[in-house]
Structure formats: C-alpha cells, structure tokens
Design a protein that fits this description.
99 residues, mainly alpha, two-stranded antiparallel ribbon, 4% strand, flat
Length: 99
Amino acid sequence: MNDERTKRQGSFIVNAKSINEFLYYWIAQNKKTFLRRASGSTFLEISKQEISKIIIPLPHIEEQKKITNFLTAIDKKIEALLLCTVTNYLSSGQINVTH
C-alpha cells in the first residue's frame, strides 16, 4: 500500500510532495470531477481505479504552501465577516432565536 494514490474507505493516502490543505482546496474546487466518476444507489462512492485516473497538478511544495496560506487567510476573513454580520443582526433584533 505504498501507492501515493491509494484510497481507503473515506480517505486518501498522499505522498510527502503534497500538503493536505492544498489537496483539500483542490478537491473542493474540482468536486464535479469526482462526482462524475462516482456511482452507487444508496450513496456515491468512487473506486480506486477511478481515483487513479484523476490527475492533480502539484506545484512545488513551497508554492503549495503559498497557495494554501492565501486561501486559508481568505477563508478566515469570510468567516469573520459572517460572524460579524450574524452578530449585528442578532443584536439589532432583526433575527430572533427561540429555543
């Protein structure tokens, strides 16, 4: 099981030439690629054979870090804006929360 593309139930084994967060962002951006290869009636899954057909372009590790840091910073700003917006709506009474 040393194959860098080996798939376990619900996870991937990746090599040291990639950063997990970079792969997360790449997969999230290319979700349709995976869905097109998925099959199943109860739930969708992708076979190891189909996974091995997907080519993920991997820039040098330093470039992956830069890309990941940039996207993570944007995600944090979006989360902060959403939290601020929800907090403003709650404090102004525009949203009522009941139990």
